[in-house]
Amino acid sequence: MIGATKKWLDPENPHLQEAISKTASEGLFSLQDVYHQLSVLRGNVENGDIQEWVKRAELSNEQNAKVRKVLCLHAGNLPLVGFQTALGVILSGADYYGKVSRKDPYLLSSFLEEIQRSDPEQKISYSRDLNSFEDLKADKVVFAGSEESVSDVKAEIKRLKAAKQGAEYIIRTAKFSIAYLDEWNADVRQDLTEAMLRYGGKGCRSVAVVVAPFGLDEVREELKQAINSYWKQNPQYQKPTSDLKYQYAYNEGIQQNQLWLNDFLIQESEELPDTDFTVNWVNGGKDTVRDLRISFGQMVQSVYTCEEVIEGIDTEPLSSAQSPPLYWKPDGVDVIKAVVG
Questions:
Q1: Sheet holding 176-180, edge to edge
Q2: What is the rounded CA–CA span in Å between residue 107 and residue 271?
Q3: Half-sphere exposure of residue 266, counting CA atoms within 13 Å on the CB side?
Q4: For residues 6 and 44, is the Cβ–Cβ distance under 8 A?
Q5: What is the DSSP code (8-state) at residue 341?
Q6: What does the alpha-carbon distance between residue 63 and residue 299 come to, in Å, rounded to a whole number?
Q7: What is the pLDDT of residues 230-250, one digit of tens each?
Q8: What is the CATH superfamily name and number for domain 2-173?
């Protein structure tokens, strides 16, 4: 598995290069974001993340998911967003069946094909059409998407008999992450802009709420410079919708403090972030982070800090927000353990 993954990630791999070319030419994702994701994965594999994940999941000849059928419904909001799930299911020993997103049809497929070439015994089947899995009767279903779509997806799977009656559903619905800034310097600004803006802020690991013991006004100019510099280096992200302009105008009307950057809006607010290209800034401390984490519930993926430990909350380094290890836990769930258990 490790050898096949390294072979797939090889920059000279013609199958991967073809997938990258198709992805870019069809405007699915920018080359910058695809290369970023692949660079992160190469680093993960070289760092021994696959071995570490197997160790953490306590996989063995006795503890695995062999002979189980696992149906994965992959999202397509980011390039290769389904890679970790696919890798985890295959590592578990289960038979992998994947509904690949039409928004990201080539990159993940090229990985699955590489695994098949490496190990013809490994059961792998994938399609862009859920109807392909009619009468599959999978033991477990892994699904990433919005909470609003869960009931419809379950109904369609039931209609197709794609999963067994009583099959376990492992559902991922987190939407955004929180950053707690206990300090403010050039490194923090760089890490924060990357965490907020990579992929246009569309990932569940993207920061949409910032909590800091200092107000937005205190860091306004330095933050503005950092964001503008990031945009210049990453011009690939789409421009804001009219909703963002309306939000800006509304904030002006009620005199709410905000930082308007034409392509991005940061506003002082403790409300749930629900507008694209918007980050809510909250002046507060660790107790505020705990309160917001509880208030926002399952919509929060991760809480990032610079170095501080927040008692009672699992945190991750802000610097790794958009470059997590392979064994990170989507929605707090270890994919391998969930499939094996």
A1: 258-260, 265-268, 278-283, 207-212, 176-180, 300-305, 316-317
A2: 36
A3: 22
A4: no
A5: -
A6: 31
A7: 988 888 776 666 678 888 888
A8: Aldehyde Dehydrogenase; Chain A, domain 1 (3.40.605.10)
* Domain spans, the chain: 2-173, 176-320
Tell me which residue has tokens 């000849």. 61
- pLDDT at site 239: 67
122 contacts: CB under 8 Å, gap ≥ 6: 90, 96, 115, 116
Fold of 176-320: Aldehyde Dehydrogenase; Chain A, domain 2 (3.40.309)
Sort 24 into a burial class: Cβ within 10 Å, 0-12 / 13-18 / 19+. Answer: middle
- Phi, psi (5° rounding) for residue 327? -90, 15
Residues above pLDDT 70, as percent of the chain: 99
| CA 195 to chain CA centroid, nearest Å | 11
Bridge-based pairing of strands 124-127 and 138-144 is unpaired
CA geometry: angle at 123 spanning 121 and 128, to 5°? Answer: 140
